[in-house]
Amino acid sequence: MTLGLAGKKASCVAVWLSMALLPRKKKRKDPGLPGASHSRAGDGPLTVAKFSEVGIFLVERKMGSSRRSFLTQLARKKGFRVEERMSESVTHVVSENNSGDEVLELLDKQSGICRAALVDITWFTESMGAGKPLEVENRHRLQEALKILAENAQLCENEGRYLAFTRASSILKSLPYCVTKMDDLQGIPSLGEHCKRVIKDILEGGICREVEELIQNERYQTLKRFTSIFGVGVKTADKWYREGLRTLHELRASKILLTKEQEAGLLYYEDLIVPVTRTEADSITKIVEGAVHRFLPAAVIKLTGGFRRGKEYGHDVDFLITHQEEGKEQGLLYQVINWMAAQGMILYDDITDNKDQKWKNKEPEIFDSFAKCFLIFKLQKDVVNVLRPNTAGDDDSLAANKAKEIGRGGHAETCERATCAAVKVKDWKAVRVDLVVAPFSQYAYALLGWTGSQLFERDLRRYAKHFKHMSLSSHSLFDNEQVGRN
Fold first, then answer.
1. CATH value of 3-136 in 3.40.640.10, 3.90.1150.10, 3.40.50.10190, 3.40.50.620
2. What is the pLDDT of residues 56-70, one digit of tens each?
């Protein structure tokens, strides 16, 4: 990332974290009605924008085009000015389930202009309810600052600080009131001194200097970029950073030997960083159910992860598979993966058998030993025909051929050439999918473990251990005292 871009981001974040509203911009005049601004609600007639000094831009990412269209029409009917594109006339950028850094990345790619306040969707809905633009509060900024610090702690492999900041951010999000002063936090647990210091800085000064400097930090930016690649962890990202790499272009042009997983991650990077929608997850669910029931008709297939928790977007789609007659599920995963691969549905796969011992030295509360497959799924945009078997030679694109070589154990050509093919106009999208197969006797624990969230699972297992003297994992629940007596 260039210094110019870092400077822009620093400026944007300073504005975003400040409590005061931005200075009002001059109203845009319309020849038909002097002194007023007009906007079109959907395909209907032009309507007068009562609050023309406030320009709203709705970020489509994670919000979705249909919801964005609905919110645009709603705002315009209530007299708000909503811009279709980012421009200097925008005063408020509204996003949903995005971090501030993610929004800044998107805005920089679109226009490089960022003088607006970055606000959460809650500001938008509350303003619509009040019938006027409300002052931007600190509650969302407080969460965001803590999330950024949590991210950095994770990139520095400081698990204690990561959990502390993540927990504090979750607590602030769950509060039924707006935090405007430190007294509002009296009696709230799990807020350490560092978290309180960050919150106090924002409440009193409008910004947190630590967070502002962190977002400009080259290591933070680079490691966050590299770890967003499927198959790249913190240690690998840090190694590449220390070797002088800073961008994906530099990584692709380098002679670094990548794993098959990392090759696939780079090949389909543009698709994999785009959130998976609920509609896409539902489509994949039907496909997976059809594939599994082809070999085991009575199998139980459950969508897990964030989608089971009610989220509308996610980074991947997770499934838990079992059968009430224990033992019937053995070997099922290979049958399903081989069949789906033959239909051209799989771009990359990595199967871990439940007999594999590579997890045996890992902590049981984090890892499990179920048979599972981490794969990159080829989701047709026209999902009606997605189950139709492909004939030989139907998909002759370089990206698809290289993906098959990566996924089925072949040797892929250079990432740069393959990536160029992957970003060509296509009628499909690469989506991360995890398939997990559990014996029925362990199904309930596996379902709990794979539903998440990670923080909830950690706290639940910690509670079981320290308060109930029991051991909870994705496989079982044991009474430690009873086991000790036996």
1. 3.40.50.10190
2. 999 988 788 888 998
